[in-house]
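Sanity check

After download, print the first record. It should look like this:
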Amino acid sequence: VIYPIRDRVDAEGRQLVNWVAELATPKHEQRDWNRPGKLADFIGPYEDWHFDWLDVPAFIRAADSILEFPMIDQDPLPWWTRGRVTLLGDAAHPMVPRGSNGAGQAILDARALADALSAHADPAEALKAYEAARLAMTSAVVRANRTDPPDAILREVFLRTGDRPFACVDDVISPHELAALSDSYKRVAGYDRESLQGKG
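Expected structure tokens:
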């Protein structure tokens, strides 16, 4: 992933650009999201990525700095609420950031919390009701992200093509299969129409 952040950052009119190189690695023990990265730790798989429009290894080597951000989650918690204090969003259920889940789940938490607070006169009871409404669902999302994440469609296409180029995704996977994969994750995450309309 490569994207511009700001134009004309110097007298030469260059752009400030951010790039992300993602690799699966053994489990990280350190939860440090701001540690310097080492080029040698990840450049290998990208050494042959030379395109007409971009020389990826040269681009990476030209970076002023490299940071390592482990993509990790947390096992679901058994509870979020104690008395008049509760957790919401990533504080309650940190998950690998895929498919806008951090923001999406926090928004669903906020809606459930607002609904509970409006339905219960006692704030402590409202917080218990909020936790009861959201804890099991978000735990399921954390677990699903480990095995069948929202980008499982990409994995399925990769498995079917062996990473060979193709002209049309319909030649690889049918629209029905794409919809089934997408709908399955939407149901788990609470993004399906019924859940969002309060019927799920």
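If your output differs, re-run the checksum step. Summary of this record's structure: Helices lie at 39-42, 56-61, 101-119, 123-147, 152-161, 175-189, 193-196.
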